[in-house]
Specification:
single chain, alpha/beta, Rossmann fold, 6-stranded parallel sheet, 7 helices, elongated, binds NADP nicotinamide-adenine-dinucleotide phosphate
Length: about 250
């Protein structure tokens, strides 16, 4: 039986685990950092918590060998992809990085692209933003606590540090265009701040902002290691099939 370690924390990681277990009979272990109390998980085995750096992950892979590793952590996971790249090289374990394509601006968008969260907060002043929709994840709201405006903070779980004037909305995507348009209108939002996560699940806010002429402060992704890259679940399955073999066909 083929065995695959999936470094998880994304929709793609969940979909990949489901597909490999249910369609290809692969032994999948999905690894979660453990930051989210209510993760979206179904098929295969699950473990939670860090490995203890590159050495800890390499040690784990020596003690529990896998045929392959798929790093499907979030595009804004800045550390884990480097640990995976180094540990899989050290243990000669085939690996790939599953990274969904970033969003790109289209006609009618008004984006301010910035390199990090402090730069995103700094960009709000020149815009004259007074009512900001903040969708950067619950662990990234700290960067905005000193900016004097009202914030609509949307996150899956309660953020730790929030600006003084705010409303927290707890919800998990996907979000549709009608509800995003209504949310921006209802709260009279004049700027949206988001990370360039890519994907369809949370993209509707960008379309709504475009329609309503609202500027979007877009935080660029962190650097990625040099690694075998795939951009989606199907490509990851094809890479696994070509690298370790998944059998002749999916189960009927
Ligand atoms: P990170 O900075 O790359 O990783 C920090 C540490 O968390 C790593 O050194 C590792 O600890 C542990 N870790 C990360 N992902 C792990 C996994 N899948 N399994 C086991 N340990 C993991 O990542 P992060 O930004 O803190 O994100 C943590 C998790 O949340 C990731 O799995 C990511 O996919 C998910 N997530 C992140 C974001 C975001 O915006 N950053 C958004 C949505 C989901 P050790 O060194 O001890 O192994």
């Amino acid at each position: 039986m083929t065995s695959v370690l999936v470094l998880a924390g994304t929709t793609e990681a969940t979909q990949l685990a489901d597909l490999l277990v249910e369609e290809y009979d692969v032994d999948v272990l999905s690894s979660l950092a453990g930051a989210t109390a209510t993760p979206n998980y179904r098929a295969g085995r699950i473990r939670r918590g860090g490995f203890g750096g590159t050495d800890g992950l390499a040690d784990f892979l020596l003690r529990h060998p896998f045929d392959a590793v798929v790093d499907a952590t979030h595009p804004f996971a800045a550390v884990m992809p480097f640990h995976v790249a180094a540990a899989t090289i050290a243990t000669a374990t085939p690996s790939c990085r599953l990274l969904r394509p970033p969003w790109t601006p289209t006609a009618g968008d008004y984006w301010i692209e910035v390199h990090d969260l402090p730069a995103a907060a700094a960009a709000l002043g020149p815009l004259g933003a007074r009512r900001v929709m903040l969708t950067v994840g619950r662990q990234s709201t700290w960067a905005f606590v000193d900016f004097d405006a009202w914030f609509l903070v949307r996150a899956i779980e309660p953020p730790e540090r929030v600006p003084a004037h705010h409303l927290v909305v707890l919800s998990r995507g996907p979000f549709d265009l009608d509800s995003e348009r209504a949310l921006l209108r209802e709260h009279r939002i004049d700027a949206v701040v988001t990370k360039n996560a890519g994907g369809t699940s949370t993209e509707a806010k960008l379309v709504a902002a475009r329609e309503l002429g609202i500027p979007v402060i877009m935080v660029d992704r962190p650097a990625q290691p040099q690694a075998m890259m795939v951009s989606g679940v199907d490509q990851a399955v094809a890479w696994l099939d070509g690298t370790v073999g998944l059998g002749s066909a999916p189960k009927p």
